[in-house]
Each structure stands twice: as C-alpha cells, then as structure tokens.
Amino acid sequence: MDKKDIIYINEIEIPVRDWNLNLLQFCEEVELVIPRFCYHDELSVAGNCRMCLIEIVHSPKPVISCGCMLTKEMKVFTNSTLVKKAREYVMEFLLINHPLDCPICDQGGECDLQDQSFVYGSDRGRFKEIKRAVEDIDLGPFIKTIMNRCIHCTRCIRFSKEILNIHSLSMLGRGRESEVGTYYNQDYLHELSGNVIDLCPVGALTSKPYAFSARPWELYSMETIDVLNSFCSDIKVDVKGNEVMRILPITDKVYKTDWISDSIRFCFDGFKKDRLVNPLIYDMKENFFYSCSWEFSFFMIQKIKSYQLTFFRGDNIDAATISLINELIRTSIFFYQYNKNTSSVGNINQFLLNQNEVISNKKNITIFLNTNMKKNNPVLDSIIKKKKNLFKLFYIGAFVKNNYEINKLSLKITSKNKLYKNTFYIY
Questions:
Q1: Which CATH number among 3.10.20.740, 3.30.70.2660, 3.20.20.150, 3.20.20.70 corresponds to the domain 3-94?
Q2: pLDDT at 53
Q3: CA distance 71 to 260
Q4: Residues in the chain with pLDDT < 50?
Q5: Is the pTM of this model over 0.85?
Q6: CATH architecture observed for domain 216-275
C-alpha cells in the first residue's frame, strides 16, 4: 500500500480505505474509543460538547475529532497529556451547573456523563458560585424532562429537525441563559418521538412510564424483533421478575438505524394497565372507537364469516394483525401477496417486509399504494427520507402529509379484472 494511504494514530501506521470518514468514525473502525456527548451516527455533526478533543501534529491547539476529516499522512494522538488535560477541563465545565442527583436519576447506571466523569472528572469542585436553574418543559405523556441536567449536546434538537421534521424544539437564549426548550407550549407528538429518550446522554430526557420503577442492574434483557410493523426492527426487552419494564432499540446491522416506533416502545402498558375489557367498534368517519356488548360483537363475527372474504395484502400489515385475522375466520380468508402464490400465514414471507426491494439503490421508482408510511411504518419512513434522493417516490390514494417530497398520481387504481360480490379488498 502507498504511504500516502496511511495515517498515524498514537505513532502506529494504520491504512485508510475510505477517506470520507471523519476522525472519530475512523477511530471507531479500528476499535479505538473516543469519548463524545453530542456526536451520533444518524445525526449531523455539531461539535459543541468538545469532549472528543484529540491532538494533531503541527496544530496549535486540540481539535474535535468529529469535525476533522482524514488527510493523508496525518499524525494524531488520542491519549497524550494535552488531550487528557483538555478533556478534564471540558468535563469540569460540563459539571459546573449539573445537579448532584445521580441517586434519584433514572439514567443512573447507564449515563454517559457518569462514565466519562469517572475517567476524566475531578475528585473536588472549584465552582463556588450559585448554580443556575432551568424550568422544565412539557413534552407530552411519554417524555419526562428535568432540564437542570441538560448539557446542551443538542442531540434532541437535531433529531427533531432532521428525522422528525419538527422545528419547535431549539436552543433558546445565549451564554449562561441558554437552554433547550420550545418556542411555545405544545406536545412533542410523533411516531418516533420516544427515541429522544435514548439519544439524551444524561438524565434530562427520560421515560415517564419507566420513571422510578427499576434500575438497570435489576433488569434481565432479552433480544427479539418488533412485530407491530413489517420492518421487524431489532429490539431489547428489559424484564424485572415477570414484568416487562421497558423496550429499547438495538442498532440494525444492515441499515444502521437506531430508531423504533412509540407503538412498540410503550406497548407493554397494555399488558398490565390499559387492557381492553370490552370489545370496540371502529368508526372510520369519526376516527373513534365505540364500546359494544359481547353479544353484538359475536353477532358481527358470525355475519362476517358468512361472506367470502379475500384480502389483497401489501407489505405494511403487521404480523399480529395477520395472526388475529387468521384465528378469527380461519376457513374463509385467502391471502395474496405481490408476486407470490397463495400460501399460509405460517410462511415468514407473509409478514416480513421486503426491505431490500423498497430501499435498494437498484430500484429507481417506489410507489406507495394508499398507505401512510408515517403512521404505519415510521422506522421505514425515516430510512426512505434519508435515501430519498436515490429514487423517485410516487403515491396513489387519499392525500397524506409526508416528511419528504412525493409525487401524487391519482386517488385510486382502475382495474379491468372482474370484481366479485361480497369481496373486501384491503391494500
């Protein structure tokens, strides 16, 4: 290999294959850990926490690794005396106004600030002035805020603007008066809003349903998949005894996404708190559920079974719905999948989304048939938004507000095939 294709890290020659990486990403590839608070793989580079400082030869002062691109034959030091002292000063600055409430913080035991202060923190403080106080903000029923703990990493702000397309959350004020907040009071509502809980490196944003219920060392974790949408995201279920306490995402190795929908993150509340005790009827016009008696519900089931039902199914229906429909009227439903012959629900292809076909770079055109991706599959919607420039997007159906530009074709599809009576078509 040419000498121009190598860099020196801690006086060790390391070959470089991709020059588009920044220094922090390259150090991760060679299994060299650099502390950080504001950097995240799915978000833009901010470089405002200053915790990832490194030393570059011929540079007059330390440089942030997340904002430094690779150059040929550069010489870097990640563990020099200058770097350690710089990180210690940054940590002392971050802890100036941070409250000493780790024993009552839900982030305790898995807090990035705790881990880094153990390595770079001081055993005593030199700050004798009065600590500032920040008023908490209301972000809805899922996110608990204690803004005194915020270290201004701006992960939540960048996630809101770049992934959720929500611009209400921003940095307010300047200097000592700066704080993360909203321009006006409103709920932070989105299908992926719960991911800011995982993004926050400290205890400023935590989960309201999980508050004061368990500690990380008390939980037993199990890895599984999300069956509430067809993307089948990797998730981790934390259990205390025989009770589910929380559900967290696992980084997808194929698409490198860390997001899961709020429907799977908080669905375990339905197992113990908000369980259904009466059957419900959904009114499509009013978008509301009405309770009914068990006698009327069984009458409706018998009436549905008298029809010959055929479900033409797309790839956005979840596994739980397919299984429940199959149990409800097993003998009178036929499932059809695009480019597939009739098969049983037991086949995994019936509920797994063909992810490679939808977001593959080889496909030039993607058409959505009367489906709201933001509601039905928010994780896939975020990936499509990130790769929207790689293919053209078209939509057929009623008007739906998307997070990205999409070409509207028509309201419905006309077909020359004969439509049979007493047949329901679901796309």
A1: 3.10.20.740
A2: 94
A3: 36
A4: 308, 310-315, 329, 331-351, 415-427
A5: no
A6: Single Sheet (2.20)
